[in-house]
Write a structure and sequence with these properties.
Elements (H helix, E strand, L loop, with lengths): L1 E4 L6 H30 L1 H23 L1 E7 L3 E8 L2 E9 L3 E5 L1 H7 L4 E4 L10 E7 L2 E7 L3 H16 L1
Parallel strand pairs: 6-8
Antiparallel strand pairs: 1-2, 2-3, 3-4, 5-7, 7-8
Helix pairs in contact: 1-2
Length: about 160
């Protein structure tokens, strides 16, 4: 089973408006760095500040509008991937036999306060966030996902079966 969690696609006009807005922000930032900041700290440091802030804005835009998460459930593993366009990047593999808890993130934090957290969630998606706590060699880890009801039911079944062992 495969589930893709992504933001709604932008329309053509929305995309053009977004690009024009980004260009406008970068032009204003360039003006501010060149005209005002360069007087205080010099041209080269002001240029460096512009490139750092501009790169940060570009990375933020990439994360907000392009990144999607892919959850793949096979017979014995839940694979979480982050995807930039068509390039999936592996986040973590969760073996189903190691799942200890599936449920509300606040309850998971209360029950497993020392679990390391990995987030594979998107804002602006209607699915609720689900915590999946699984055992590792170092203790417990927690993955935050936005599973659809079918995937969540399968993960809860695995957690329940693992508690009986």
């Amino acid at each position: 089973m495969k589930q893709i969690v992504e933001r709604k696609k932008l329309g053509a006009l929305q995309g053009i408006a977004l690009i024009l807005g980004l260009v406008a922000v970068l032009v204003i930032l360039n003006f501010l760095c060149g005209a005002f900041l360069a007087r205080w700290i010099g041209y080269n440091p002001a240029s460096l500040v512009f490139w750092i802030l501009g790169g940060g804005i570009a990375l933020w835009m990439l994360h907000v509008f392009i990144v999607k998460y892919v959850y793949e459930l096979t017979d014995d593993v839940l694979r979480l991937n982050r995807s930039y366009g068509k390039r999936p990047r592996h986040i973590v593999d969760i073996y189903l036999r190691q799942i200890a808890f599936v449920g509300d993130p606040a309850e998971a934090r209360r029950r497993y306060p020392h679990a390391r957290k990995t987030s594979a969630t998107r804002g602006g998606v209607d699915l609720p966030i689900v915590a999946v706590v699984y055992r590792t060699a170092d203790g417990e880890d927690m993955a935050l996902i936005q599973a659809n009801p079918e995937l969540r039911a399968k993960l809860e079944g695995c957690a329940k079966a693992n508690r009986k062992k």
